[in-house]
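In this section we walk through a basic example: taking a raw amino acid sequence and producing a predicted 3D structure, encoded as C-alpha cells. The instruction is simple. Fold the sequence below.
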Amino acid sequence: MAKQIKNSKLLKGIAAVLKELRDVKNVSQEEVYNDTNIHVGRIETAKANPTVSTLAALCKYFGISLSDFYKRVEEL
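The resulting C-alpha cell sequence is shown next.
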C-alpha cells in the first residue's frame, strides 16, 4: 500500500476554512458530528487528511460547493 501524502499547508487551509464555515453557521464541533457523523475536530487541527467524500459531505452540510470550498482554501 502506498504511503499517504500529507500537505501540511493544504491541511491547515482546509482546517481554517472549515472552522470559518462552522463559525458562520454558529455550530459547535459536536453539533457538526451529531448532524453529519464526521469528527471535524481532527480536521480543524490539521491532524486528519480528509477524503474528498468527507469534504463533499461537509460542503453539503455548510451549503457551499466543493469548488467554492477549494477556492477559499487557495485564497488563504
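Looking at the output, two observations stand out. The CA atoms of residues 10 and 54 lie 15 Å apart. The chain has a mean pLDDT of 95. In the next section we compare this with other chains.
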